């Protein structure tokens, strides 16, 4: 039996090519698509993060029954800071936070911070200010919970799962990233805000 070689025949299995002649995207188109996708991702992250702050404000103000029960809201005479700061049981500022708990200035500063940061993120304006204010708030809340502590001041276990990285740190990094990325331009009022004369002269307001 004679075996004939057929140089034009390929018997190995191959996946069919999905690329056809003339359909390969240009480098500029690929870059533009990636840029647009990144903008939408940051915009979605911005709106969701803003809703976290806004919801906290609404729940504490009106007692919607989640973190704040009915009758314990701010408008009913409750204090948004008394429970959290009064319950601090570890860290270098434990006694200081106890002194602040329930103070009118602390309540107003905390609630205005939640409202301002939430509105800035959802609308896409003043993201730099929101990043600064939000990072300061998250830093104070991180110190209040004090993740490095294995035990509370009464000797009981702190139940901390990580000595450094917790959700407060993550929120702070997200706020900074949104401001650096200029995430208010997509699905937000960032572009219109940036064109205002006051903002044009004071770029820190972006």
Could you spell the SSE succession in H and E letters? HHHHHHHH
Using only CA atoms, what is the Rg? 26 Å
Q: What is the helix fraction of residues, given as a range?
A: 40-55%
% residues in beta strands: under 5%
Task: State the major sheet.
Answer: none
Q: How many DSSP-defined strands?
A: 0
Low-confidence stretches: 1-13, 15-22
If you average the pLDDT, what whole number results? 90
Distance between the termini: 82 Å
Count of helices?
8
Envelope shape: globular
- Structural class by secondary-structure content: mainly alpha
Question: Quick gist of this model?
Answer:
This protein is mainly alpha-helical and 206 residues long. It has helices spanning 27-62, 82-86, 94-100, 104-123, 127-145, 167-181, 190-194, 197-201.
Walkthrough of the structure:
- 54% of the residues lie in helices and 0% in strands.
- It has helices at residues 27-62, 82-86, 94-100, 104-123, 127-145, 167-181, 190-194, 197-201.
- Mean pLDDT is 90; it is low at 1-13 and 15-22.
- The chain has 206 residues and is an all-alpha fold.
- It has eight helices and no strands.
Topology:
Elements: H1 27-62, H2 82-86, H3 94-100, H4 104-123, H5 127-145, H6 167-181, H7 190-194, H8 197-201
List keywords for this structure.
206 residues; 8 helices; globular; disordered N terminus
């Amino acid at each position: 039996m004679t075996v004939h070689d057929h140089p034009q025949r390929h018997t190995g299995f191959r996946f069919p090519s999905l690329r056809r002649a003339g359909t390969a995207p240009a480098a500029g188109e690929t870059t533009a698509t990636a840029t647009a996708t990144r903008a939408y991702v940051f915009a979605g992250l911005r709106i969701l993060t803003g809703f976290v702050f806004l919801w906290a404000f609404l729940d504490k103000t009106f007692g919607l029954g989640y973190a704040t029960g009915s009758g314990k809201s701010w408008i009913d005479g409750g204090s948004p800071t008394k429970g959290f700061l009064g319950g601090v049981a570890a860290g270098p500022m434990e006694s200081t936070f106890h002194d602040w708990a329930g103070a009118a200035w602390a309540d107003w500063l905390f609630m205005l911070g939640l409202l301002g940061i939430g509105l800035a993120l959802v609308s896409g304006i003043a993201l730099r200010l929101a990043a600064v204010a939000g990072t300061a708030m998250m830093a104070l809340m991180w110190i209040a919970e004090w993740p490095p502590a294995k035990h509370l001041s009464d000797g009981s276990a702190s139940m901390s799962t990580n000595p450094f990285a917790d959700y407060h740190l993550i929120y702070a990094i997200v706020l900074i990233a949104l401001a650096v990325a200029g995430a208010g331009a997509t699905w937000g009022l960032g572009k219109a805000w940036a064109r205002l004369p006051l903002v044009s002269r004071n770029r820190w307001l972006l």
